[in-house]
Amino acid sequence: MTTETMPAPIQPDGPKAARYWNPYIAGIGLGVTLVVSYAVLGAGLGASAPVARVAAEAAHAVAPAAMEANDYMGGWFGDGSPLVHYLVFMVLGVALGGVISARLARRVDFKVERGPRATSKLRIVMALGGGVLVGFASRLAAGCTSGQALSGSAMLLTGSLVFTAAIFVGGFASAPLFKKVWT
Amino acid sequence: MMTNVLGSTTLFSEGLLGSQTALVAAAAIGVAFGFFLERAGFGSSKKLVAVFYMKDFAVLKVMFTAVVTALIGIRALAAMGAVDLGDWYQMETFLVPQISAGLLFGMGFVMGGWCPGTAVVGAVSGRWDALVFLGGAGVGSLVYAGVYPAIAPIHEVGAVGVSTLDDVLGVSPGVAALLVILMALGAFIGSNKLAAKRAQRTA
To answer: Residue A129: which domain range?
Structure first.
């Protein structure tokens, strides 16, 4: 191993913030969490469906008839709120687990994270645009990095493995377009 | 259904994913999920996006380690007869939508700096851009619902039902699992070599 020439991984900015875990250790923790999810729930992890369900609930407050008639989301209103769903509760857990970890490690830091050449405004516009793309793509694929890339790949599902490969291809291919935001 | 050692079924196989027990269990699993994501450094968009600029390969390492760990755990539990994978939810494969979605997703990931799960962790870590990203993802989901009638037929293109790598390759699940593990190991070694080479060049 060429450890002596390896660049240091990115660490948090704050002077009091603890260093991040070794990626292999964190990965093992996530992998075990995923096995527990499958063994108990019979389903893997998920984060994009709850985002879509919260959006559906919000849109329903404005246009109830249109949402209930929608071919894709209408069924979510069949027996009550789309928010009563195990993945919505899972993502609430993610928020809790995330804030516990971030506070213990003194990594809570209120800011707009961006590259040295980017203004906050540019970064916010890009975050919005990237969010729209990712939200749309997650519905098109029926899952995101959690539900497809992690959970599906661990089950050797063809579509999930192909989706994961496509994410990396799309990310690497478009990275030069967004250099000003990050480098 | 075959009886297994633990005699256990899953909430999914019992049709109980909507029960209060499932909601509580999912929340508890979510706490561990969020905790490990944050520990990995995924509450930071700079750390996440760095993989696409080949400056920090944590995303690749964490993700593939998680897949390999779960893969080994799942195969071991199944081989021992402790679980029956027939009790687990397996998503269907739709090749054309999933490939196009992956390309779009990758672009959105670099552009926005987050994916949905990490954006939740970022938001509770104080990142305003993560909150904005989640708002955008909600809008993107609604856009999909809006155009769904027009693009629904695309889901029939390359739809092959539940498909696994071992089916496609005509090998046993064990061999397919081994191939994925080897690919992950290749990615770990390759990314380390690449990072070392880049460090030398900039030194």
So the answer is: 113-183
pLDDT tens-digit map of B57-78: 999 999 999 999 999 999 999 9
Distances (CA, A) of B170 to A21, A73, B163, B166: 38, 37, 12, 6
Of A94, A110, A126, the domain-final residue:
A110
Average pLDDT, chain B: 93
Paired strand residues for B127: A111
Contact of B152 with A148, CB cutoff 8 Å: no
Q: Is B21 on the interface with A (CB under 8 A)?
A: no
Give yes or no for B121 touching A (CB within 8 A). Answer: yes
Of A110, A134, A169, the position where a domain reaches its end is A110
- Please state the rounded mean pLDDT for residues B177-184: 97
| Yes or no, beta carbons of B124 and A99 under 8 Å apart | yes
Residue B176 CA, chain-centre distance (Å), reads 18
State whether A137 and B149 contact (CB < 8 Å): no
pLDDT of residue A4: 52
Is the ipTM, as predicted for this complex, more than 0.90? yes
